[in-house]
Design a protein that fits this description.
mainly alpha; 3 helices
Length: 93
């Protein structure tokens, strides 16, 4: 009986380790995808500003897309920092 319990415990620990590492890998993938989405949205915004101007309709659309990407990813600190900079930049225009 003791051997069966040991085997069962080892099997359960192995399963727990596999599930844990799988969940960690998924979280890392999600984080990388979020970072990539945010980075692409930032590039599109920069491009729209260069092509059409800071306050253009295209730039505003790209800002909204960037904010949506950040909200989806939960990147609140970065969003707040950029939002503060946007208000500061607008004060000088």
């Amino acid at each position: 009986m003791t051997r069966k319990i040991r085997i069962l415990c080892i099997a359960l620990l192995t399963i727990a380790c596999l599930v844990g590492s799988s969940l960690t890998a998924r979280a890392d993938d999600r984080d990388r995808q979020c970072e990539r989405r945010i980075h692409q949205a930032e590039e599109r915004l920069r491009d729209a500003v260069q092509r059409h101007g800071e306050h253009s309709r295209q730039a505003e659309k790209r800002r909204e897309q960037l904010e949506a990407a950040r909200r989806q990813c939960g990147d609140r600190d970065h969003h707040d920092h950029d939002h503060d900079n946007d208000h500061h930049d607008n004060d000088h225009h």
